[in-house]
Design a protein that fits this description.
This protein is α+β, with helices and mostly antiparallel strands. Strands 5, 9, 10, 13, 14, 15, 16, 17, 20, 21 and 22 form an 11-stranded mixed β-sheet that branches. It is elongated.
């Protein structure tokens, strides 16, 4: 009886259902509920499985062909009278089995279990209808089986995908959603990384990028890797963003360079494509320079100096040692062996605009220009080296006394520019020079509004030296007539590397992969991009053939439009309360400098002219307030040097005064000494003392005023804060 109530409805078939909003669509029957005469159906909507219970009347009204047999109009031969029909309906609704009465023979049809005598009269009709139902059901069953098979396949695929995702992705990560977006985007790329089989191109200026792997600290913090290097010259940054409605999305920014090294590339491979082609330059009477640039903790010192094990460094695997190895190998070649070249090495650091010799107990050095406008580092020691082992010993000595400090990014962070030079001399004269520079962390360049003056000076010098370095390299590439090398100590010391047709430069920009370092990473890439100004187009991104273009990807992503604005960088922003043009600031500061020109002699200097030129060339990055701050710092540094020099002179003069005064006092012990001579000499000494000390006191007062001016200028600069996700 229950089977008759459900008619032709079976588990697994699809039926039409009506939703509460009036929509009608198909759903699959998953269970038959006899207790409340309903069925449970399920359907897939927007990727989710949904279901509900529907009573039989609603199902039969939308699917009349699935109704029970009594809904099919019977033949006239078996047409029951109205009374008996009502009785049968009552029986069906009450769901009780009642034997028919003797007065109702026509009611003995297939709905009620009757006697055997009633069956032969309905046999022909039942057999014909059952054959039709069998034919009808056979087609329906086939369709149902096909649908069930497809559904099972889909379920298995979804289950496998969920299991794979669960293995690859940590669902407990707070940035799980961003992680899935990055993983799905990477799945659409066709990876073609740099290999040792790729050709090495000749570049006068080579700019490349190296990505390091996530370190232990980042892994423990569950930081995400937001850097993708899909090909040998493309770097992509997946910057997480958040809309006004708190929807998170990715802004994928793309950069192109000469070479891009992923986190699996060893130092030897980086050296092969960057510094190794420059070694031959110094044997051809040229100047070569290799820089490592990037955020603190991004791998600069690891790249240049070698692998770290705690605080101990294996110097044999750094670019310093690899370059020295190739220098000694080339010395043995016949065409260079006959030149009888000698190899020397120097190692010094530049910290807060001052130069210190790392091979001579950090002796402070002076940087001067001689009559031929050649920059000389006075007192810098050159050590002759005979083999790679000698070079490694010098590197170890220098690294042990290099200025470093603890930061949030690195427990052993470099705070200075370290310059290691391999010098070739022939009969005492300079033949070639290879300068390898491990720059200070670029994020310190923005730290110019710190409450601590030493930190401010560090940041100001780093900021200024990196801007000057960029402009000097660009001037080298464009053969500009003037290079603003005097704007910083770093570029002043390396002046000979930026002039001449036989000068070549390589910059290795090291980047951290973590999402927490995303802003500093973008600043590094934009800086490196502006050094050589590469172009980028959508065709440079190696999408796989099956994934289509970027527009075919999931709509949950938002991608940038490769606009030129991506190549701009502003590490510092202008205080909105302060307005004005940079030229008015320059004019204002020039009036202040004129007042000091007579006393200090620092009014119009090549350093100040180059700094002014540097700031004008970088108006987008240097606000008027930042230029004013750099002017104040430069003025303060020059005044500091003069005060210290004058103080040293006064000290030495005081020693001479003491000797003269001692002789005068000895003269007074004589019985008949010349009182007039004593008084005259003592007065002369005192006047000389007063003049010199008064002059020194006035300079110290001006120096203190310059310190206050620097402090006030630093308060006008607001460092750009990282955008919150």
């Amino acid at each position: 009886m229950a089977a008759a109530n459900f008619g032709k409805i079976q588990i697994g078939i699809y039926v039409e259902i009506k939703r509460s909003d009036g929509r009608i669509h198909q759903a699959m029957v998953t269970s038959l509920n006899e207790d409340n005469e309903s069925v449970t159906v399920e359907w897939i909507e927007n990727g989710d499985t949904k279901g509900k219970e529907i009573d039989l009347e609603s199902i039969f009204s939308l699917n009349p062909d699935l109704g029970p047999d009594e809904d099919i109009e019977p033949s006239p031969e078996t047409l029951p009278p109205p009374a008996s029909s009502a009785k049968v309906n009552k029986i069906v609704k009450s769901r009780r089995t009642v034997l028919p009465s003797k007065n109702d023979p026509p009611a003995r049809d297939n709905r009620v279990v009757g006697s055997a005598r009633a069956r032969p009269t309905q046999l022909p009709e039942q057999s014909s209808s059952s054959q039709q139902n069998a034919r009808r059901k056979s087609n329906c069953v086939k369709e149902v089986e096909k649908l069930q098979e497809k559904r099972e396949k889909r379920r298995l695929q979804q289950q496998e995908l969920r299991e794979k995702r669960a293995q690859d992705v940590d669902a407990t990560n707070p940035n799980y959603e961003i992680m899935c977006m990055i993983r799905d985007f990477r799945g659409s790329l066709d990876y073609r990384p740099l290999t040792t089989a790729d050709p090495i191109d000749e570049h006068r200026i080579c700019v490349c990028v190296r990505k390091r792997p996530l370190n232990k600290k980042e892994t423990l913090m569950k930081d995400l890797d937001v850097i993708t290097i899909p090909s040998k010259d493309v770097v992509m940054v997946h910057e997480p963003k958040q809309k006004v409605d708190l929807t998170r999305y990715l802004e994928n920014q793309t950069f192109r360079f000469d070479y891009a090294f992923d986190d699996t590339a060893p130092n030897e491979m980086v050296y092969r494509f960057t510094a190794r082609p420059l070694v031959e330059t110094i044997f051809e009477r040229g100047m070569a320079t290799c820089f490592a640039y990037g955020q603190t903790g991004s791998g600069k010192t690891h790249t240049m100096g070698g692998d770290f094990s705690g605080k101990n460094q294996d110097c044999s695997k750094g670019i310093y040692a690899l370059a020295a190895r190739d220098v000694f190998l080339m010395l043995k070649k016949p065409n260079y062996k006959k030149l009888e070249l000698q190899v020397y090495a120097t190692f010094f650091e530049i910290y807060s605009g001052k130069v210190f010799d790392l091979l001579n107990r950090k002796t402070k050095l002076r940087v001067l220009e001689d009559g031929k406008q050649q920059v000389q580092v006075v007192g810098l020691q050159e050590r002759e080296v005979k083999c790679v082992e000698d070079v490694l010993k010098l590197i170890e000595v220098g690294n042990s006394c290099r200025t470093s400090g603890q930061t949030s990014a690195n427990a052993h962070s470099s705070r200075s520019h370290a310059v290691f030079q391999i010098i070739l001399r022939r009969k005492g004269k300079l033949h070639g020079k290879f300068s390898l520079i491990d720059l200070a962390g670029n994020e310190r360049g923005a730290d110019t509004s710190s409450a601590d003056r030493q930190t401010r000076l560090e940041g100001a010098e780093i900021n200024k030296s990196l801007l000057a370095l960029k402009e000097c390299i660009r001037a080298l590439g464009r053969n500009k007539p003037h290079t603003p090398f005097r704007a910083s100590k770093l570029t002043q010391v390396l002046r000979d590397s930026f002039i001449g047709e036989n000068s070549r430069t390589c910059m290795i920009a090291t980047i951290s992969p973590g999402m927490a370092s995303c802003e500093n990473t973008l600043n590094t890439l934009r800086y490196a991009n502006r050094v050589k100004e590469f172009g980028i187009s959508p065709s440079d991104i190696p999408f796989s053939q099956g994934s289509g273009s970027r527009s075919d990807l999931s709509p949950s992503y938002e991608y940038d439009d490769f606009s030129p604005s991506n190549t701009r960088v502003k590490e510092l922003t202008v205080d909105p309360t302060a307005a004005g043009d940079i030229r008015s600031i320059i004019h204002h500061t020039s009036n202040q400098m004129d007042d000091l020109e007579t006393q200090w002699g620092v009014g119009s200097s090549p350093q100040r002219d180059d700094l002014k030129l540097l700031c004008e060339q970088n108006e987008e990055e240097v606000s008027p307030q930042l230029f004013s701050f750099h002017e104040a710092v430069s003025q303060m540094v020059e005044m500091e040097e003069q005060v210290v020099e004058d103080h040293r002179t006064v000290f030495q003069e005081s020693i001479r005064w003491l000797e003269v005064e001692k002789l005068l006092l000895e003269m007074t012990e004589e019985v008949d000494y010349d009182v007039d001579s004593y008084a005259t000499q003592l007065e002369a000494i005192l006047e000389q003392k007063i003049d010199i000390l008064t002059e020194l006191r006035d300079k110290v007062k001006s120096f203190r005023a310059a310190l206050q001016e620097e402090e006030q200028a630093s308060k006008q600069i607001n460092p750009k804060r990282p955008r919150a996700l």
